[in-house]
C-alpha cells in the first residue's frame, strides 16, 4: 500500500468540510487514537468497532480495489473514496471478523493528491475507481502496488535484487479505449405502472448489476460513445427489448464497439439473447444511416445464464467480418471476439519493453505462450530468428496466422492448444527456446506451464501480466525453479482505474546454468 501521501496543510479547499491544517477533531465523534477521543473510546481502543457508529480515522493506504484503508480503535476499515494522507469522519456500514467497511461522511483533512473527478457520474459508475486521485499519484501508487505484491506474495527482495521501474504513464490519459462493452437495460417511463421507457446503456454501479445510463465516458474513444447513443436510440424507436437477468427474457444484452485508432475503421457488435432480431433490416439500415463510416455490423448470440459477455455463435449482419488497425507499423485484423489490447499507445510501450527484455539479436528461437491473435509474436518476429505462438482458442490462432500473412512475416508459426501440452511436444520435436514469453489472463500461468518453462530452461523468460498478485505468485515459482527476476516495468494501460499491466524479465540463475 502507498503510505507516501501526506495531509494537506495548506487551505482545506479540496474535499468537504476541511479546514486549514486539518483543524481539530470534534470530541463528539469517536477517534481511532488517543488524545481528543472520549474516555469511553480510549478505553475501548482495542475493541471492535460498532456498526452505524462514526469514527475519525487516518487513511494510510489503498486496497487493490482503490478503497482507502484506515484503523478505528485498531480495527481495519475500508473506505470508498478516501485517499492516503487524509483524515476522515466515517460511518461503519459492515463489520466482519478482521475488518469492516465504512462510508466517507466528511473529510477533516484532505490529501494534496485529491482532485475533482471530471466525470459527472463518477460516484455512481463502477468503471473507474481513481478519478479523485491525481494522475501523477496514481502512477506512484501503481508502482508501489506492484512492489507490495512482489514483496508480500512473491517474497522477493525488491529494490535490492530487483529493479521496479517507475510506471510508464500517458501524456493524455483520457479517451484511450478502442473497445466499449456496454450492458443494455430498460428504462421505466412510468414507475407507477412499470411502462417501458426505452433502452439504457452504461457501466454497472460498483458492486452491483444496476446499469448507470450514460451518454459519454471520458475513457472511451468519442466514436464509441456515439455508437452506443445511436444504438440505444434506434433500438428504442424499433421497440427492441433489453435482456433481463432475472427473467431471462428480452433481446439485447450488450453493445460492443471496436474502433481502429490508426485506420478509423468501426465495428458494431450486438450481443443478443437469441438468434431472431425483430426489424433486423430496419435496424441495420438505421445503424448505417446514423453511422455512415461503419465497416462491420455483427451479431453474437448468447442465451446462457452467465456474466460472460459473448456466446459461441457469431454472424456478420452487414459488411466485413473484421476491421483493421495498426500497432507500431504492424497491421492486425480484428474480429468481434478477438483479444486486442484496448489502449493502443500503451500497448506499443508494453510490447516494446517486452521485446527489449527478450534481448533479441536476430538468431533466437522464441516461444510465445498465450499468443492470442499474435500481437506480441509479430513484434518479436521482427527481431527474432523464429517465433512459435500457442493459444488455446482456435479462432485466435486463425487470426494470428492471418495477421502474420497480412504483414509478410514468414518466421512466425502458430498452433492451437494448451501451452503445457503443445510446448513439451515442440521440445520433443527439437524446438529449443532461447526465450519464452508469457502473457496469461488475470489468473496467471497454469502450474503445468510454469513447470514446462523450468524444464525447458530458456535463457530468458519475459512475463507480461495484468495482475500483480498472480505475477508475484508465478515469479516465486520460477525463482524456486532456477530463475532470477531482474527487473519489472509497470505500464499504465488503464488510467483512472486500479489496474496496472507489468512486464518482467527473468534470467537463468548462474548456479543453474
User: What is the highest CATH level, the class of the largest domain?
Assistant: Alpha Beta
Shape: globular
CATH architecture call of the largest domain: 3-Layer(aba) Sandwich
| Domain module tally | 3
**Which structural class should the secondary elements be placed in?**
alpha/beta
Number of E-state strands: 23
Strand order of the largest sheet: 7-22-23-21-20-17-18-19
Question: Largest sheet at a glance?
Answer: 8 strands, mixed
Could you tell me the radius of gyration in angstroms?
26 Å
Beta fraction: 25-35%
The name of the CATH superfamily of the largest domain reads: Vaccinia Virus protein VP39
Distance between the termini: 36 Å
Q: Any overview of this molecule?
A:
With 513 residues, the protein is an alpha/beta fold. The protein has 3 domains: 90 residues, Beta Barrel (OB fold (Dihydrolipoamide Acetyltransferase, E2P)), CATH 2.40.50.140; 202 residues, Rossmann fold (3-Layer(aba) Sandwich); 149 residues, OB fold (Dihydrolipoamide Acetyltransferase, E2P). Helix content is 23%, strand content 29%. It is built from 10 helices and 23 strands. Strands 7-22-23-21-20-17-18-19 form an 8-stranded mixed β-sheet, with helices on both faces. Helix 2 packs parallel to helix 10 and helix 8 runs parallel beside helix 9. The longest helix is centred in the first third of the chain and has 18 residues. It starts with 29 loop residues before the first strand and ends in a 5-residue tail after the last strand.
Amino acid at each position: 500500500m502507498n503510505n507516501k501521501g501526506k495531509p494537506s496543510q495548506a487551505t482545506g479547499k479540496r474535499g468537504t468540510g476541511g479546514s486549514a491544517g486539518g483543524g481539530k477533531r470534534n470530541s463528539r465523534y469517536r477517534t481511532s487514537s488517543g488524545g481528543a477521543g472520549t474516555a469511553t473510546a480510549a478505553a475501548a481502543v482495542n475493541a471492535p468497532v460498532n456498526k452505524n457508529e462514526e469514527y475519525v480515522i487516518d487513511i494510510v493506504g489503498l486496497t487493490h480495489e482503490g478503497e482507502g484503508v484506515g484503523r478505528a480503535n485498531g480495527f481495519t476499515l475500508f473506505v470508498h473514496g478516501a485517499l492516503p494522507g487524509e483524515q476522515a469522519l466515517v460511518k461503519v456500514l459492515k463489520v466482519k471478523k478482521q475488518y469492516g467497511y465504512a462510508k466517507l461522511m466528511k473529510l477533516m483533512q484532505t490529501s494534496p493528491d485529491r482532485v475533482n473527478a471530471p466525470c459527472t457520474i463518477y460516484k455512481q459508475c463502477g468503471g473507474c475507481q481513481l478519478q479523485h486521485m491525481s494522475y501523477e499519484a496514481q502512477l506512484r501508487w501503481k508502482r508501489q502496488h506492484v512492489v507490495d505484491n512482489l514483496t508480500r506474495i512473491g517474497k522477493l527482495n525488491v529494490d535490492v535484487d530487483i529493479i521496479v521501474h517507475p510506471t510508464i504513464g500517458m501524456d493524455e490519459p483520457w479517451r484511450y479505449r478502442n473497445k466499449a462493452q456496454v450492458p443494455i437495460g430498460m428504462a421505466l417511463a412510468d414507475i407507477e405502472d412499470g411502462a417501458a421507457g426505452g433502452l439504457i446503456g452504461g457501466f454497472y454501479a460498483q458492486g452491483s448489476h444496476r446499469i448507470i445510463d450514460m451518454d459519454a465516458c471520458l475513457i472511451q474513444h468519442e466514436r464509441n460513445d456515439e455508437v452506443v447513443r445511436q444504438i440505444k436510440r434506434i433500438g428504442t424507436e424499433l421497440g427492441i427489448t433489453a435482456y433481463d437477468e432475472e427473467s431471462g427474457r428480452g433481446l439485447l444484452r450488450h453493445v460492443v464497439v471496436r474502433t481502429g485508432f490508426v485506420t478509423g475503421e468501426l465495428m458494431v457488435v450486438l450481443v443478443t439473447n437469441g438468434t431472431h432480431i425483430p426489424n433486423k433490416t430496419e435496424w441495420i439500415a438505421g445503424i448505417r444511416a446514423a453511422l455512415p463510416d461503419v465497416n462491420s455490423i455483427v451479431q453474437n448470440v448468447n442465451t446462457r445464464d452467465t456474466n460472460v459477455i459473448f456466446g459461441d455463435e457469431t454472424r456478420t449482419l452487414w459488411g466485413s467480418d473484421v476491421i483493421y488497425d495498426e500497432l507500431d507499423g504492424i497491421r492486425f485484423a480484428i474480429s468481434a471476439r478477438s483479444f486486442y489490447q484496448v489502449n493502443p499507445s500503451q500497448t506499443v510501450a508494453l510490447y516494446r519493453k517486452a521485446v527489449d527484455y527478450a534481448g533479441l539479436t536476430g538468431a533466437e528461437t522464441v516461444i510465445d505462450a498465450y499468443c492470442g491473435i499474435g500481437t506480441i509474436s509479430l513484434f518479436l518476429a521482427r527481431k527474432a530468428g523464429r517465433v512459435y505462438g500457442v493459444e488455446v482458442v482456435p479462432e485466435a490462432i486463425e487470426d494470428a496466422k492471418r495477421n502474420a500473412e497480412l504483414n509478410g512475416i514468414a518466421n512466425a508459426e502458430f498452433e492451437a492448444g494448451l501451452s503445457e501440452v503443445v510446448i513439451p511436444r515442440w521440445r520433443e520435436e527439437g524446438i529449443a527456446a532461447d526465450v519464452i514469453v508469457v502473457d496469461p489472463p488475470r489468473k496467471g500461468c497454469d502450474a503445468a506451464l510454469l513447470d514446462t518453462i523450468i524444464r525447458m530452461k530458456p535463457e530468458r523468460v519475459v512475463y507480461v501480466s495484468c495482475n500483480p498478485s498472480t505475477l508475484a505468485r508465478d515469479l516465486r515459482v520460477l525463482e524456486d525453479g532456477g530463475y532470477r527476476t531482474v527487473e519489472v516495468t509497470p505500464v499504465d494501460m488503464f488510467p483512472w482505474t486500479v489496474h496496472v499491466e507489468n512486464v518482467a524479465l527473468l534470467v537463468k540463475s548462474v548456479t543453474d546454468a
